[in-house]
Amino acid sequence: MFKIRADDFSWITGKEDDPTDRCLHGHVTVQIGQTVLEDDGTVSATALYLLKSLTEDKIMNDSCIQMIPCCGFFMLANPSLTEVTIIGCDSGTDWSVIHEDGRVKLVLESGETEYVDFADYQAEVFRFADSIENFYRSCKPKEIPDDSFERDGYTAFWNEWHRRRNGGN
Q1: What is the distance between the alpha carbons of residues 22 and 15, in angstroms, rounded to a whole number?
Q2: Does the CA dihedral 5-10-11-12 come out positive or negative?
Q3: C-alpha to C-alpha distance for 113 and 89, rounded to whole angstroms
Q4: What pTM was computed for the model?
Q5: What is the pLDDT of residues 107-132, one digit of tens each?
Q6: Which of 89, 68, 75 is nearest to 6 (CA)?
Q7: Are 28 and 39 in contact (CB under 8 A)?
């Protein structure tokens, strides 16, 4: 079983809508098998990394962002603005996602493993990502930064999000 939900959304400055803050935070509850994990983190990054995990294995390690990262303060765009790498601190909640024979193997830090049918995993990832995007849509439009590094990162974030959400790798 794999279920993931987010609530209690906020921006770095608090619950009041902030058009200058591009990273949505919230409280995440995830159930993997019989284990329930809860953490506060950057849910916009969680959603993107879940979307990435539909086509790529994501292995827990100290050099990669967590599935529920505490923060994601840098978005590094690739040159074509089609993909982004989010960099944050080393705090957060993580698990591995490994594709095996039409299923997804989810591995917790404890070593507990849960197998989920890919279609069920994909449906849950899409549901979670859609809930995050719907919250963004309910807010004031985000101010696009003048700084090219920040602008390119944010542009690449949504380009990759929509490509992956709409079935592209």
Answers
A1: 13
A2: negative
A3: 26
A4: 0.95
A5: 999 999 999 999 999 999 999 999 99
A6: 68
A7: yes
